[in-house]
Design a protein that fits this description.
- This protein is α+β, with helices and mostly antiparallel strands and about 270 residues long.
- The chain has two domains: about 170 residues, no CATH class; about 80 residues, no CATH class.
- The protein contains seven helices and twelve strands.
- Strands 1-2-3-4-5-6 form a six-stranded mixed β-sheet, with helices on both faces. A two-stranded antiparallel ribbon has the order 7-10.
- A hairpin with a 2-residue loop joins strand 1 and strand 2.
- Helix 1 crosses helix 2.
- The longest helix has 19 residues.
Length: about 270
């Protein structure tokens, strides 16, 4: 049996800068492990990869360790918090969260949802005591803040597809809260605030799910249009067979997924049939 990998390949400073497209942020994040005694190099690499799916990213150093890190998720914004503390009334001490992502509406500045991500790279996370301890900590965080935490083992974060799966899980979590928000009337005039989504071209749904860039709205903020990397999203689950890969499926021809052009074409055909 192949030995499980208990770490990931760490990014260099130049590699981190390349995926974040923000030098100040990459400098801060790369040195974050040296500025505190909690984070490790694999953890900051993990955090950098997760943040990269919410570009364009903005970084502002208020003073000392007080920083503001923002990103974009469709028509919504996100805040990132590194090693944010949550008080544990049982031990009278605080728990640290590797990464907290807050989804919020920039128009109202209201938080819509938040999720914590934990990189479980230390071997103690795999023994019986560590597993029980982690569950207890997650329960405390949930009780104190109402926030769930998603734990990622290094073995589940080895490839590009692994990293995309983590993003997809966060996206799916946020989507259930976005659906509860009444649809807003947006001005989609190209010369105004919003513009047609560059990924789905306004059709809102790609494959079996809503567009991961515009979150099913069909439009994005005009000032981030040119900064969206649509190449990150190269395949979409087939809406008919959803990865069961039915051989006679007419939409995906047994592959279980669609490329972008196929997904847009199929969605347009569905809309025209309405």
């Amino acid at each position: 049996m192949e030995k499980k990998k208990r770490t990931i390949v760490c990014l260099s400073l130049s590699e981190m800068d390349a995926i974040l497209n923000n030098k100040n942020l990459s400098d801060y994040l790369f040195n974050f492990k040296s500025n505190n005694k909690i984070s490790s190099a694999p953890e900051t690499t993990f955090i950098a990869y997760v943040m990269s799916y919410f570009k364009p990213l903005r970084f502002k150093n208020i003073s000392g360790t007080n920083v503001v890190i923002n990103g974009v998720h469709g028509c919504y914004s996100v805040n990132f918090h590194l090693q944010k503390k949550v008080y544990n009334p049982k031990t009278k001490k605080s728990l640290s969260n590797d990464l907290i992502i807050e989804l919020y509406d920039s128009d109202t500045n209201e938080i819509i949802a938040k999720i914590g991500l934990e990189y479980d790279g230390h071997p103690e996370h795999t023994n019986s005591w560590g597993i029980v301890s982690d569950k207890e900590k997650d329960l405390i965080v949930l009780k104190q803040t109402g926030m769930m935490r998603l734990r990622i083992d290094p073995e589940l974060f080895q490839s590009t597809e692994d990293r995309k799966d983590v993003y997809r899980a966060v996206k799916k979590y946020f989507e259930q809260y976005i659906k509860l928000i009444p649809k807003k009337k947006r001005n989609v005039n190209p010369g105004r605030t919003y513009i047609e989504c560059p990924l789905c071209e306004g059709v809102q749904v790609l494959g079996a799910q809503s567009c991961p860039v515009c979150m099913g709205n069909g439009y994005v903020l005009n000032n981030i249009y040119s900064k969206i990397d649509i190449d990150v999203f190269d395949s979409f689950d087939c809406p008919d067979c959803t990865k069961i890969t039915i051989r006679n499926c007419r939409k995906c021809r047994g592959k279980g997924f669609l490329n972008r052009d196929e997904a847009i074409m199929i969605r347009k055909e569905e809309l025209n049939a309405l």
